[in-house]
Amino acid sequence: MVADDEELMRRFQGGDESAYEMLVDRNLDFVIRQARRYIRDLAGAEDVAQDVFFRVWKSKDRFRHAKSFRGWLSTMTSRIALNEIRTRSRKRWKPRSSLGSDEFESPGVDWVGGSDRSTDPDAELLREERIAMVNAAIEKLGEPARQVIYLHYFEQWPVPRIAENLGLTVAALKSVLFRARKKMLTDLEKYIDADKKDLPDE
To answer: Which residues pair with 95 in a beta bridge?
Structure first.
């Protein structure tokens, strides 16, 4: 009789490393497919999968057999993939001078897909200060608001897709997005007003 994943995990917790290898072989494709729901490129998804199975190894004693192993694996994969998106996003955007007034407009950032090539020291310093301010506002949001901001504004996912991946209704997702944007606008209000004062008169 072929052992199920939960049985293999029990053996692994008991010290059977061959059971861990079987778990990896059996579930690797599943994890990569799950990761690619978030990470478009295969190489990135494979990196996420590697991290997932490393976490399985380190966290083996935390698994409880009343749980579904694949459910545990799926949750872990989603969290690690979302963290990867957030890491990538922080390296690939620069702020605008205003958050704008449209409900679903990007919260003060322009997607640039790479690093800024500015050679002006003053401009670079100002850019770094703005990035720090906006990033701090995002990090203060908590979950799932941070995930929603990164997926919608940086990865440009549509609302229904985010809702499906995070297990929310579209209405609930829109509510999270609205509250997150409102909180960011409040946190960055002083910065926005100061930035506007620096603009030349027309």
So the answer is: 109
Burial class (CB in 10 A: 0-12, 13-18, 19+), 171: exposed
Round to whole Å and give the CA distance between 176 and 159. Answer: 11
Same domain, 108 and 184: yes
- Which of the given ranges, 7-11, 39-43, 66-70, 132-136, has the highest pLDDT on average? 7-11
| 29-43, 70-84, 131-145, 175-189: least confident range | 131-145
- Classify burial at 80, counting beta carbons within 10 Å of its beta carbon; exposed 0-12, middle 13-18, buried 19 or more: buried
Cβ–Cβ < 8 Å for 17, 57: no
Peptide bond into 144 cis (omega under 30): yes
* Domain with 32 in it: 5-87
Reported residue count of the chain is 202
Pair (27, 107) in one structural domain: no
3-class SS of residue 111: strand
- Please check whether residue 74 lies inside any domain of the structure: yes
Residue 149's Cβ-count burial label (10 Å; 0-12, 13-18, 19+) is buried
Residue 202 lies in a domain: no
Mean per-residue pLDDT of the chain: 77
Q: Cβ of 30: how many Cβ atoms within 10 Å?
A: 14
pLDDT attached to residue 75: 84
Across 158-167, average pLDDT? 86
Task: Give the closest residue to 91 by CA, choosing from 119, 114, 109.
Answer: 114
Which CATH number fits the domain that encloses residue 111?
A: 1.10.10.10
